[in-house]
Structure formats: C-alpha cells, structure tokens
Design brief:
single chain; about 200 residues; alpha/beta; Nucleotidyltransferase, domain 5; five-stranded mixed beta sheet; 8 helices
C-alpha cells in the first residue's frame, strides 16, 4: 500500500480553511490513558517515511516526530485517564481525548480529518476517514504524536509499577501482562471495566 498523501488537506486549504488531522492511541490496552493528538500540517508538506504509527518502529516514530514538531503549523495532545475510561467507556473517552487535543491547539482549525468512523461533538466541520492514518498525512502525523506521547506516559508508569513491565507492552494484553495481573492483581492505573482485568483472578 502506498504511504499516506496530502490530497485531502490540499483541497481543504484550497477552500481557505485550515485542516487538522486527529487520531488516538491506546484504545486496546488494559491499563493507562487513551491519548489523542491533533496536527495541522503546512499546505505543502512532505516527510520521508511518514506513515501509520503502527507500521513504524519506535526509533522511526521518534525521528518522524522530531520532523513533525519542526514543520507543523501546530500540534497538541489530549489525555483521558483510566478512571474516565471506566466511567465513560473507551469509545467516548477516545472521542473526548480528541476533543481535548483539538481544543489545545493554538491555531484553530476550521476542518477536522478524523481517523475511524466516529465524529466528535465539536462544532467544527469534520470528515471521518477509515484507516485514515494510512491515507492522510495529517492523520498519520497525529497517530505518531499520540503513540509516542502515550508510550512516554507508560514508561513513567513502569517506574512506579515495575512488576507489570509496562515499558515492554505499554499496557496491551500480552501474555506477560495478563500473567502479571494474575500474579499481582490490577494496579491503580488498570482499566477495571476491561474484560482482561475483570476476569483475571489473583492466584
């Protein structure tokens, strides 16, 4: 598959509007927050290797993030913690994180390109794009910003709860993580409403 392109953004810029790509990281883990990012890229923009964050290695994401920070018109993140995820559900929490990220932008967009098929409640024109992080440059950039930021948060939680080895799996339900929950029980940042946490009993 070809890398994401800038065609959607170009059309929006040509209409005199400012587009922001929006994506999140952390819907699937059993612990930690969901993190979203909103990124406004210049009208003419190219970064070698820019792609869906899931297709990149951590060093590649960090390198590309540095380029995004240098070249972006603006970028921001939104973080919704595990308690809010348990209260709202993960879909609503993910959308809330996106809304926070957009709200944190200094340069206000007039159009949102959102990964997936769910719109936010923001009163801004928006388009959802299935697999947008593989199709649209600004969404791909947002996916990288969100992923790197969330990984940084989980690395910090690793220092607090080293017995779960969050640095390795970032809270995703790997066999190692599930075994750690069985052995130690859930820790304060586990999502208590998630099946992998609820059904795992301490031996």
């Amino acid at each position: 598959m070809s890398p994401p392109d800038h065609e959607m953004e170009k059309r929006i810029w040509a209409e005199g509007r400012i587009p922001a790509g929006v994506d999140e990281a952390g819907r699937g883990p059993l612990a930690g927050p969901v993190v979203a990012a909103a990124v406004i890229l210049p009208e003419t923009f190219a970064i070698d290797g820019l792609d869906d964050s899931k297709k990149l290695t951590h060093p590649q994401r960090v390198r590309i993030l540095e380029m995004i920070i240098i070249h972006a018109v603006d970028l921001a993140v939104g973080v919704v913690d595990h308690e809010a995820i348990d209260s709202l559900n993960i879909l609503k929490a993910s959308l809330r994180a996106m809304e926070i990220a957009v709200g944190n932008l200094v340069r206000k967009p007039d159009f949102l390109l959102i990964d997936g098929n769910q719109r936010t409640s923001l009163h801004i024109p928006q388009k959802t794009v299935i697999k947008g992080d593989s199709k649209c440059c600004s969404i791909a950039a947002a996916s990288i910003v969100a992923k790197v930021r969330r990984d940084e948060i989980m690395d910090k939680y690793h220092e607090i709860y080293p017995e779960y080895n969050f640095r390795s799996h970032k809270g995703y339900p790997t066999p190692e993580h599930l075994e750690a929950i069985r052995k130690h029980g859930p820790c304060p940042i586990h999502r208590k409403s998630f099946r992998g946490v609820l059904v795992t009993e301490v031996k």
